């Protein structure tokens, strides 16, 4: 079975109540994630900006073998009644993907979950991010337990290197 594929339909986890996109804008640092084919680097950051009402600009950056690579996209709210369920698209060639904010306190941490059904299977992505390059271990464990309750194999989460010296090229 291809990486990340699990049998059955996507789970439907609860998302952040009363999600406020305006407070979510700004820079987030990757702390842990489920491995992906499209994010192989370290020092990952995501910067969100408001483009127009209901449309958020996304700039994902990472350091890959000493080179900064960035991807730009847009996130849109599909249903105003569920503002924490966004849809992100990065290029005209790839279909948009779900971006669900399961938990955030806006100032410290966010937990993002994405699931797409592929035939009889589903593929999951998850990111734990922080406003700082580090996140208290207790918070990380709390967010991992939310993922675990949804059925995500949290033992597969990999840490992102946010070491200040290693990641220095990112802040130049």
From TrEMBL:
<dbReference type="GO" id="GO:0008289">
    <property type="term" value="F:lipid binding"/>
</dbReference>
<dbReference type="InterPro" id="IPR026222">
    <property type="entry name" value="ApoD_vertbrte"/>
</dbReference>
<dbReference type="GO" id="GO:0006869">
    <property type="term" value="P:lipid transport"/>
</dbReference>
<keyword id="KW-0325">Glycoprotein</keyword>
<dbReference type="InterPro" id="IPR000566">
    <property type="entry name" value="Lipocln_cytosolic_FA-bd_dom"/>
</dbReference>
<dbReference type="GO" id="GO:0006629">
    <property type="term" value="P:lipid metabolic process"/>
</dbReference>
<dbReference type="InterPro" id="IPR002969">
    <property type="entry name" value="ApolipopD"/>
</dbReference>
<dbReference type="InterPro" id="IPR022272">
    <property type="entry name" value="Lipocalin_CS"/>
</dbReference>
<dbReference type="GO" id="GO:0007420">
    <property type="term" value="P:brain development"/>
</dbReference>
<dbReference type="GO" id="GO:0005576">
    <property type="term" value="C:extracellular region"/>
</dbReference>
<dbReference type="GO" id="GO:0042246">
    <property type="term" value="P:tissue regeneration"/>
</dbReference>
<keyword id="KW-0873">Pyrrolidone carboxylic acid</keyword>
<dbReference type="Pfam" id="PF08212">
    <property type="entry name" value="Lipocalin_2"/>
</dbReference>
<feature type="domain" description="Lipocalin/cytosolic fatty-acid binding">
    <location>
        <begin position="20"/>
        <end position="162"/>
    </location>
</feature>
<keyword id="KW-1015">Disulfide bond</keyword>
<keyword id="KW-0813">Transport</keyword>
<keyword id="KW-0446">Lipid-binding</keyword>
<dbReference type="InterPro" id="IPR022271">
    <property type="entry name" value="Lipocalin_ApoD"/>
</dbReference>
<protein>
    <recommendedName>
        <fullName>Apolipoprotein D</fullName>
    </recommendedName>
</protein>
<keyword id="KW-0732">Signal</keyword>
<comment type="similarity">
    <text>Belongs to the calycin superfamily. Lipocalin family.</text>
</comment>
<dbReference type="InterPro" id="IPR012674">
    <property type="entry name" value="Calycin"/>
</dbReference>
<dbReference type="GO" id="GO:0005737">
    <property type="term" value="C:cytoplasm"/>
</dbReference>
<dbReference type="GO" id="GO:0000302">
    <property type="term" value="P:response to reactive oxygen species"/>
</dbReference>
<keyword id="KW-0964">Secreted</keyword>
